[in-house]
Amino acid sequence: MKGANVLVGVRERFDVDYNRFFADLTTLCRALGAGSAAEDIAQESILHARERHTQLRDESKLEPWLRRIAARRTFEYLRRQRRHEACGLDDPVVAFLPSDPSVSVDIAAAITRLPERERVAVVLVYALGYEQEEAAAVMSVTRGTVATLLHRARRHLAEHLAAYATERDLP
Amino acid sequence: MRRLTDHVSSDRLGEAARHASLDYLRDVERRHVEACERCRRLYGGYRLTDRLLAAQWREVKLPAAALERPTRRATLAGLWAGFAAGFEARRLAPFAAIAAVVLLVGTAVAVPRLLPAPAAVPSSLDTTRSVAPGTQAWPSSTSGPAASATTQASGSGKAPSSQPEPTPAVSAAESPQQLVLDTTRLGGDPVAWSPDGSHLLVLVSGKAQVRDARGAAGGSVYADAAAWFNSSTFAVATRSPTRGLETIRLVDTGGRVVGTLPGIYGMGATPFATLVGSGSGQLAIASRVEVDPLSPSDPSASPSATSTEPGTPGWHFVLWNGKLSAGHDGVPVAFTRDGRKLAVLHPGSVAGGNVTGWLEILATPSLKTVAAFNGLTLRLGPGAMGSAYGLDASFSPDGRYLLASGTLVDVTNGSSFVAGKGGWLGDGTLVTASDDGLLRWGAGHATLDSRFPGAGTVEASRHGELIYFYGDGKPALYLNGSGTLYALTLDGVGSIERLLIAPDGRTIALDGRATDGSSIAAVASLTR
User: Fold this and answer.
1) How far is CA B193 from CA B80, B199, B383, B477, in A?
2) B69 and A CB contact within 8 Å
3) Does B160 sit within 8 Å of A95, measured CB to CB?
4) Chain A interface includes B162 (CB < 8 A)
5) Domain end point (choices A62, A87, A112)
6) Among residues B171, B407, B445, B453, which is most buried (max CB within 10 A)?
7) Of A105, A113, A126, which is closest to B159 when you measure between CB atoms?
8) In CATH, what class is B172-525?
């Protein structure tokens, strides 16, 4: 019966913590590039997880599990978007960027043009403040892979921004 | 053995950047970096990257065209340029010879166009800078805030950037004339000038007191928050000591209560209301509901306890323009100058000194949504008296841009960036303060006005006057509407902490430190 109690606890947490889960997942989906679909994906992810909460063995891993579901759905959504080329050149794209006064379109472009896995790792760790282990769980990779992706992303950004920093005598 | 001519590896440069010093490198490496442009540039790139990664991140909207991926040909050319830049020419000699043979063979079999010839690659190709003019997310040369004539010269045709650039066109050698002003002391903190600049609200011991432009005291009334309704009437929110709820009253410049708005506002453990006035006969009144008003556990909470119709905890507001509107969610931030639009923040979370939420632009008085944007992050600040989150916000004269706590938002597309705190001149030029001096924004970028050096604070009037002042006792600099620069000496004032210019640009109110070190609040006329 202990297991049943745990399951009831998980179901209750969906109801009690719905707003917090929703806000957390919406931010995650936006950061991953879901844009205006972020709220829909977050809600679908919570409903999906709630229906399948019996699959969760360890209650303490509820949030990482939710994030993984939301991330997977976001990546699926982005793949569909790319296939259909739905985004016109005049449509705004939402991106997470450093709020540094020196950030310009050049820098924004450098960040958004990072290879997808590197960009995702950068956004999860630097924009959302996830630990590398948490980012690894969301991306379904190992912590070492996240560290490697961050290292590569830093090098790519440095190469992109080398001329920009020199021209403006930064830093 | 490392030779001086060998490039320093990317990882070593990255480590040096992480330690913020070339001293981290070995002597031979450091000497090479100092002599080698490529390594120096890469080191600079790492330093900038680390600074960006350590900054706070926020969600912004950018036009997709600005982030358009480079074409396949440009990518190949960029790869080749990077490859070529990474090696010394003499090392490339054998590869070049092989490439030449391959090219010749390729030519012979009629496939010369499959690969771009190295000679066709622009030497300075930088795919990150392929943004077409006019596609940037922030103010452009055609639609942004107008640049002043003195700063336009260096700005036209450049890519947009929030990075300030010095402008030699500004008359750096101009020395300010001395201007000594008499002051009249106030008994409290100045809050806001009336829209016509004829009266000033001053907070004195929990009361809002009216003063005329010369500082003479008028009537006063108890107030938790105050805002100008029009040039002759202001609104105050006053809390009932017994019921813990607030009433909103309209008061004339003589301090007489001329009306009380229907409804009572604010509830919960820490009730308060915030007021935003258009100055032209509209008032937005917001309350934060911290408990569910329908919850039976809180006896003070009932749906009738407020006219803002709260259904859930959070911010709600109503609009008063002679009659009360229906309730609406969100925190009113600022009216446009013509009073036809109202910016409303829907706060989500508060962390790290910032409030994050989404912004809604409403038409008034209908409160119909004109535009809405996600992902706005604003810095919390001291703001005006009773303002929610201490936000200090103002629209540009044309209503296209909103400057809220230093963040500039284009309300036509939601793009935003940190411009710094400042204000709008009458011609639409945005002026903000930075660590290096006064920035004038226009043509999509900022230019430094070297007449106003160092870290200060700027206040501007609608008529074009601006004052740049310092908190450390340096004389404030005053640029009048006709472009004459003055160094201000204010009688009895040692340093200025906060300053308000009247909308007509004729009078200032300030608080700060007196020459004897005590606190001082005063008004002074800018006209002699």
Assistant:
1) 62, 6, 14, 21
2) yes
3) no
4) yes
5) A87
6) B445
7) A105
8) mainly beta
